[in-house]
Structure formats: structure tokens, C-alpha cells
Q: What sequence folds into this?
């Protein structure tokens, strides 16, 4: 297993003598949170909402009201989730959507990879190598790549079924009425 610490030579190029200085710089850069796009966030929210309704159909208006989010954004999200095979839709009066797969067959890591346009964490990931002047000595690109892989690996360990475990609490918080026969798909 390779060391997670950057090589001393690379740190020296930046005039940094100790790893704690790198950590201090990263802390000053922000809260350190990896952020998903709003589109991906809404994809996950739609799957949670629709999944928590079981076999009952959900509508875009219900989801928008439940989460307090834009109906127009949700239309794009639902369309994409349908294209990807996560939702089936029923058109017309009394229509809506339901999961096209069982919740335990919907992997969160895969949903995120499919929903994100790109997973670029920094400018140096765009285009070809050689764009940045410090690239030959830079440890950041590899560190961010490793962090992204770890982030996705964690999500790969979860399915929609895991997110639906507290179904009763979710339905209550989203204002989804408890209906007899509305169980897990």
C-alpha cells in the first residue's frame, strides 16, 4: 500500500516543510465539502420520494411541494431518470411515476456518476496534462483524484433501499399520506 503523505520533495517545491501546513491551507480554502450539482441532488431526492411511495404513483407537483423545490427543475430530473431506467411514467389523468427497479437495485454511486455532467474537482482535471505550471511537482491533483474515488466508493456501498430504511419518518416529513397497500415495490 502506498503512503498517503505527499513526498517531501513535492512539498519543498512549495516552500512547505510539514504536512500540517498543507492541511492548514486546505482548511482556509473552505469547508472541505464535496458538492453535488443541484441536478444530482434533485435526482436523489426524486428517487427517495418515489421510492417511499412504494407502488403508488408520485407526481412532479407532489415532489415539488414535499421538498419545496422548483417544479421546472424536477421536470428535467424526472425526464433524465426515466431515460436512465430508474423511473417509469404513466401519462394522463391520474398519471405519475414509480420506480422502474427495486430500491435495492438502484446504486447511489452509479446514480451520481450518471447524473453529474462531470466530476471535475479542480481546473487541473480539465483538458490535457501540462496546463498548470506546477504540475510536475503537484500533489493536489492526485489527492483530489483519490478523494473523488473514495467519495464514490462510499456511495457505491449504498442503494436506494438503504435511504428508504426510515420510510415512516420520510413519508411523514414529506407529507406523503399513509395509504393501505402502499408498501415497498
A:
Amino acid at each position: 500500500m502506498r503512503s498517503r503523505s505527499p513526498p517531501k520533495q513535492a512539498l519543498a517545491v512549495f516552500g512547505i516543510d510539514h504536512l500540517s501546513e498543507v492541511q492548514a491551507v486546505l482548511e482556509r480554502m473552505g469547508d472541505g465539502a464535496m458538492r453535488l450539482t443541484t441536478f444530482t441532488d434533485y435526482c436523489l431526492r426524486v428517487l427517495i420520494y418515489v421510492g417511499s411511495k412504494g407502488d403508488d404513483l408520485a407526481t412532479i407537483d407532489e415532489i415539488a411541494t414535499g421538498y419545496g423545490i422548483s417544479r421546472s427543475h424536477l421536470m428535467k430530473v424526472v425526464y433524465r431518470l426515466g431515460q436512465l431506467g430508474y423511473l417509469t411514467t404513466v401519462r394522463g389523468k391520474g398519471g405519475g411515476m414509480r420506480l422502474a427497479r427495486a430500491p435495492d437495485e438502484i446504486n447511489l454511486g452509479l446514480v451520481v456518476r450518471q447524473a453529474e455532467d462531470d466530476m471535475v474537482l479542480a481546473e487541473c482535471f480539465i483538458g490535457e496534462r501540462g496546463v498548470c505550471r506546477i504540475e510536475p511537482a503537484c500533489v493536489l491533483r492526485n489527492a483530489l483524484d483519490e478523494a473523488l474515488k473514495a467519495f464514490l466508493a462510499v456511495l457505491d456501498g449504498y442503494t436506494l433501499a438503504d435511504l428508504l430504511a426510515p420510510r415512516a419518518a420520510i413519508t411523514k416529513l414529506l407529507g406523503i399520506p399513509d395509504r393501505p397497500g402502499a408498501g415497498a415495490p
About this structure: Residues 87 and 99 are 5 Å apart (CA to CA). The chain has nine helices and two strands. The first strand starts at residue 87 and ends at 90.
